[in-house]
Design a protein that fits this description.
NADH Oxidase; putative fmn-dependent nitroreductase like fold; 3-stranded mixed sheet; 200 residues; alpha+beta
């Protein structure tokens, strides 16, 4: 698949086919890319936990915040909840003084992961709104492992559409009466800044 097409289709999905769990072999292939991305000073301070167990997933779900722009939506209903979670962890024993750099690593690693996942028809939603302490205790993590991001994962149960930002400049994503999720994106003209015309 052409890279641009893969990037276009790798969109946030918040409603899943909860009972359809990807097989272990597929997970192994996708997880492999987490170690391949760039890392500041090559410290490789990120670690991960894949949670597929149904009982544990049910305990994680109420600890998460969903879709800030959809203010009246409490999150996916039963049957549309994630089939798995990827817990992204900062290993503080490796990252003294490098937490800012770690978040750059996190962006690279999770985008690589979501691209690889969408190539297998698995989609996700990055979630940063959660109780770090409660997640830490629930997962019985060692003290040096700090949860910094959770990715909800599964086969999609909703359609997402990219569209241009309107004349009102509103960039909030929204859901229409058919349940289609619309995601406004700024044009290339809006995001590019011209180089200076004068010579140096």
């Amino acid at each position: 698949m052409e890279l641009k097409t893969l990037i276009q289709r790798t969109r946030t999905v918040r409603r899943f086919q909860e009972k359809e769990t990807p097989p272990g072999k597929v997970w192994e292939e996708i997880l492999e890319v987490l170690k391949l991305g760039g890392s500041a000073r090559n410290l490789q301070v990120l670690k991960y936990m894949l949670v597929c167990n149904e009982e544990l997933r049910q305990k994680i779900f109420p600890l998460l915040g969903w879709a800030g722009y959809l203010e009246q939506w409490p999150g996916p209903a039963s049957g549309e909840r994630p089939a798995a979670y990827l817990i992204c962890l900062l290993d503080t024993s490796l990252s003294i003084g490098t937490e800012r750099e770690a978040y750059c690593d996190l962006g690279i690693a999770t985008q690589n992961f979501l691209l690889a996942a969408s190539a297998q028809a698995i989609y996700g939603c990055r979630i940063a709104s959660f109780s770090e302490e409660k997640i830490h205790n629930l997962l019985q993590l060692e003290s040096h492992l700090k949860p910094i991001l959770i990715i909800a994962l599964g086969y999609r149960a909703e359609e997402t559409v990219l569209e241009s930002v309107g004349s009102d400049g509103n960039i909030r994503d929204w859901r229409d009466n058919n349940g289609v999720h619309h995601i406004p994106k700024r044009s290339l003209t809006e995001i590019m800044v011209s180089e200076p015309a004068s010579s140096f």
